[in-house]
Amino acid sequence: MPAVTRPRIAFAGTPEFAARALDALAAFDCDIPLVLTQPDRPAGRGMKLVPGPVKQRALAHGLMVAQPDTLKTPELRAPLAEAVPDLLVVVAYGLLLPRVVLDIPRLGCINIHASLLPRWRGAAPIHRAIEAGDSRTGITLMQMDEGLDTGPMLAERTVDIAPDDTTATLHDRLAATGAQLLLDTLPALLDGRIVPVPQPSDGACYAAKIGKGEAVLDLRRPAAELERAIRAFDPFPGALMRVEGTPIKLWKATVEARSGEPGQILAVGDDGVVVACGRDALRVTELQKPGGKRLPVAEFLRGHPLAIGVRAECGTQS
Q1: Are residues 179 and 74 part of one domain?
Q2: Which residues contact residue 187 at a Cβ distance below 8 angstroms, ignoring those fewer than 6 apart?
């Protein structure tokens, strides 16, 4: 890449993960001529349109914002073309970039992705890494192409996954790591001192978007797998079991070497509700009923008692 003096770096992103990177870019010695983000979405009881974190941060920094719902037409691409960026930084934007968009910035488009590529390409790399029991993950800074997270790598940084990490806690560490990696890499990238490296041919896997249907735990599975799912689905969509028709969300649990019919409640107390699984059991210590709050088990049981011997529905994940 040829060197530039004061670069014009546009940005595309939508959620909080991306907002951390935008904050970092705003502190970098560059001009940010445009921020692309998805349209405001309805939220809350009144379903009023609410701007996403990137838009809120962009406005706070005094930056120009465009919110096309697609980039497939010349009219909707016009704000980016008119911004004449040297580079476009893309972070969890949520829209596919066609080749014509990738070609607008003269230095191309780069992406901050929350995994060590080629592992966990796709929409939910943080969730899937925890669910799979990975011991580490990280951030890859990648030159974008038309594939799904298949472009050559510019830099990467490893992050360990702790045994008690949830998607929420790991998200925050990865967001901070991604923002810092961007700052650390941009000077060499803009000076043409980084040679993109093709992704390894082995180890690629796909991190499918998390669906609400996955929340219902199949209690015939091993408790160790379900414990990881509980952490992976925190904060969304929340892991779920049904007891006598009532859905109960499970937010914290540990694995115990106990046996019983899958779904059977083996013990109930202030130190946890023990639920038998296909192998071993879960001791659940934080629960939530519909319309309620996440509660420690002792407080939950005072308002919502559970009985030993009752069986939760096993369910199947979809």
Answers
A1: yes
A2: none
